């Protein structure tokens, strides 16, 4: 689904006066409209939370969603909320073509606004058709479902929105990013967005995986008898295969200097010279390169040619690491969980505490590391639930060593005077989050802080405490 489609979806559900609350098939909230928070009085963003945790925190008295997941049928319940209102909540299952549950869409209508229950049910049935039409165009786990890109991060969405325009050109692209962020996927999408996907192939070359003694002949090919052990008839190189298509040179920073000169010549003249050959061959190739290294620093050190760097860096694309796009961790985890449950014929789900630990981990290996961790958990899990104890030790250990950014700021500036208001807010945040982590629900957390629950909820909202509040039920 394009970025514009995502905006349209949000506008559509926010135009509905009734509360809308959408969960995935496992019971995690993936979207809601503004009316839902207004009617219910729930003071925190519930996206990413499991409905059971809302019951545990006394934010809802019951759940239509859980009944729909259990029965696979439409369910209506009268539910009480923190706002003091009672609402008729109708949960509607949404299935794929194979009959598998995809989403549960709940309609929340304040009973005080209804004249009779009969009118409400009639109204609910009418809206049900409208919501199903909306969901046909909504994929909660991706910006573009056909491209299998899973992101809610604004920076990543901006990159995806630019891909069609970049793909239409033949300009050289240099993708910057740490290992595991998805540079290869972005490169392949660029090819798919271009006319070259019709005329030619997408050829990936991992410059770090080919020995330096072989990389020239692998890239450019060779003539018969060019060297000892060469085929008598010669061999076409990988760049030959990319003719009229796209050559993706991954880890371009590992390319030896002598080959950097030869690649520069190809970019300038659009011709290649095979090893042992005398006649240049014309080529029509679009180059997309990627690196996890600082090429500008390598230029200064003399290990990467400046002229080649400028030739490659016509359109730079910088992919942020996973630790800088925390919003994506939840959706990626569920996406990988679905993938590997299907692969290994398992049926598993994460308990909230385990999901929160994944969220807090820094993921130095980025998306690739997350994918590998989820696969390992699916393979080794002995029950239907993945708990915090099942996670790798480094993830559990990192989760215990999280430093709150406000407190870290005070530590780093301890020799400077901090505004009293900021210091008080930072201290309040630390105390509230610690109480939420150490107590089973909001009520006991409020008691530990010697404040009433309404004061706690108000301070959570004021301080923007969402993740800590979401973990209250996990301790």
UniProtKB/TrEMBL annotation:
<dbReference type="GO" id="GO:0006355">
    <property type="term" value="P:regulation of DNA-templated transcription"/>
</dbReference>
<dbReference type="InterPro" id="IPR058031">
    <property type="entry name" value="AAA_lid_NorR"/>
</dbReference>
<dbReference type="InterPro" id="IPR003593">
    <property type="entry name" value="AAA+_ATPase"/>
</dbReference>
<dbReference type="InterPro" id="IPR002078">
    <property type="entry name" value="Sigma_54_int"/>
</dbReference>
<keyword id="KW-0067">ATP-binding</keyword>
<dbReference type="InterPro" id="IPR035965">
    <property type="entry name" value="PAS-like_dom_sf"/>
</dbReference>
<dbReference type="InterPro" id="IPR009057">
    <property type="entry name" value="Homeodomain-like_sf"/>
</dbReference>
<dbReference type="InterPro" id="IPR025662">
    <property type="entry name" value="Sigma_54_int_dom_ATP-bd_1"/>
</dbReference>
<protein>
    <submittedName>
        <fullName>Response regulator of zinc sigma-54-dependent two-component system</fullName>
    </submittedName>
</protein>
<dbReference type="Pfam" id="PF25601">
    <property type="entry name" value="AAA_lid_14"/>
</dbReference>
<feature type="domain" description="Sigma-54 factor interaction">
    <location>
        <begin position="149"/>
        <end position="379"/>
    </location>
</feature>
<dbReference type="GO" id="GO:0005524">
    <property type="term" value="F:ATP binding"/>
</dbReference>
<keyword id="KW-0805">Transcription regulation</keyword>
<dbReference type="InterPro" id="IPR025944">
    <property type="entry name" value="Sigma_54_int_dom_CS"/>
</dbReference>
<dbReference type="Pfam" id="PF00158">
    <property type="entry name" value="Sigma54_activat"/>
</dbReference>
<keyword id="KW-0804">Transcription</keyword>
<dbReference type="Pfam" id="PF13426">
    <property type="entry name" value="PAS_9"/>
</dbReference>
<dbReference type="InterPro" id="IPR027417">
    <property type="entry name" value="P-loop_NTPase"/>
</dbReference>
<keyword id="KW-0547">Nucleotide-binding</keyword>
<dbReference type="InterPro" id="IPR000014">
    <property type="entry name" value="PAS"/>
</dbReference>
